[in-house]
Specification:
Helix content is about 35%, strand content about 20%. The protein has 13 helices and 15 strands. The chain starts with a helix and ends with a helix. The structure holds pyridoxal-5'-phosphate. Pyridoxal-5'-phosphate (PLP) binds next to helix 5.
Length: about 400
């Protein structure tokens, strides 16, 4: 009989020739456990998903209660489902007034797609500006606004009218004009290796959008849910999105995304054409229950200072001559090394020592540090000791 591992390679579609292929049996809190019982300290949260750690008891309880009430009932938007209503109203208390209306999706890329459609429908314009090294999802519209040509080339033709600008280059923002329906940006670029925006860049971007009537779509699929400290990373900047994208950690470990705008803007999907954006499963009640239980825990204001001090501890401990730079904000950090080969070796050796980490899609020389926000000081110390020990062997 084939082993589980053989079946994985034979019958599950692969996305690379080098999957991690660990056989994980269970996960709890900060740890993943493999089938041999070895435990791994999680430094990546399933890529910015498990912000409250694995198997959070309140989230599990909310899921169980929702399953007992009901699962899928009807396609998106037709029925008043209490768990969706509670989640949308909770979000509206946490966001500025212009972000009061939520369209729930199943994933991040669907949120991107919906936001781009909304911007085109509202403006009657067709061009969208995006940034080099940005990642907004893998479906064809989202891929069109990704800022990496290699990822896109095999799948052309993609959407026409996409302008790719350099991130953090205020001078290039003049290319946003009266034909631009929207600009889409990650408030902090994730897959580029955690690149923070300059104040000047964000200010000019926001002003340019206002001057040209172009909508500002802010992708917080990785950065929201307190990943950087505040509930949403844009809160510590000068900008307010016209459309906000959520995904990943938003669902508390369940598949859920959202694009959020004003009630007036969202109303455009109701006519010309009616049913302008559809989804069967968007806002699945079980995912919404998990998201609500997660948000209720993340709401506590004390997270912000805790995350700040955890960042400080990482920065204090991770000092080594092989580390070129430590970048990021909150528990959204990256270690830059000289090259991708060195980073792969470090990641592999960390894994052997029970530390689970990863690289970045467009920055293969950078190591990802985005642990569940519940990571303790001792666990940070252990993670850093493992990384430093590994660096001493390189
Ligand atoms: C910033 C950002 N936007 C969008 C997406 C797409 O989300 P999903 O994989 O849920 O489609 C991702 C996924 O990695 C992301 O990091």
């Amino acid at each position: 009989m084939s082993s589980q591992r053989q079946i994985f390679f034979e019958h599950i579609a692969q996305t690379s020739d080098f999957p991690l292929a660990l056989e994980i049996d269970k996960a709890e809190g900060m740890y993943l456990y493999d089938s041999a019982g070895k435990k791994y300290l999680d430094l990546i949260s399933g890529i910015a998903v498990s912000n409250l750690g694995h198997a959070n008891s309140q989230i599990k309880q909310a899921i169980k209660e929702q399953v007992d009430k009901h699962m899928h009932l009807m396609v998106y938007g037709e029925l008043v489902q209490s768990v969706q209503v509670l989640l949308a109203s909770k979000l509206s208390t946490l966001l500025p007034e212009n972000l009061g209306c939520v369209y729930f999706t199943n994933s991040g890329t669907e949120a991107t797609e919906g936001a781009m459609k909304l911007a085109k429908r509202l403006s009657g314009r067709t061009s969208i500006a995006a940034f080099k090294n940005a990642y907004h999802g893998s479906s064809q519209g989202s891929l069109s606004v990704c800022g990496n040509e290699e990822l896109k080339n095999a799948f052309r033709p993609l959407l026409p009218g996409i302008e790719i600008l350099d991130y953090n280059m205020p001078d290039q923002l003049d290319r946003i004009n009266e034909n631009t329906a929207a600009v889409i940006l990650e408030i902090i670029q994730a897959e580029a290796g955690i690149i923070l925006p300059s104040k000047e860049f964000l200010l000019k971007l926001s002003n340019r959008c206002k001057a040209t009537g172009c909508l500002l779509i802010v992708d917080e699929i990785q950065t929201a849910m307190r990943r950087t400290g505040p509930m949403f990373a844009f809160e510590s900047t000068s900008i307010i999105p016209d459309i906000l994208l959520l995904g990943k950690g938003f669902g508390g470990g369940m598949p859920l995304g959202a694009f959020i705008a004003s009630k007036k803007m969202m109303a455009a999907f109701t006519h010309k054409p009616v049913l302008g954006n559809l989804s069967t499963f968007g806002g699945h009640p079980v995912s919404c229950a998990a998201a609500l239980a997660s948000l209720e825990q993340l709401e506590d204001a004390s997270w912000e200072s805790k995350i700040e001090s955890k960042e400080k501890l990482f920065r204090k401990l991770l000092v080594h001559n092989k580390i070129i730079e430590i970048r990021g904000k909150g528990l959204f950090l990256c270690l830059e090394f000289e090259n991708a080969g060195m980073n792969q070796e470090i990641i592999g050796k960390c894994l052997k020592k029970g530390l689970f980490t990863d690289w970045f899609l467009f920055a293969p020389n950078c190591l990802r540090i985005a642990p569940p926000l519940i990571i303790s000081e001792e666990e940070i110390e252990r993670a850093c000791t493992i990384i430093l020990d590994v660096l001493n062997t390189i």
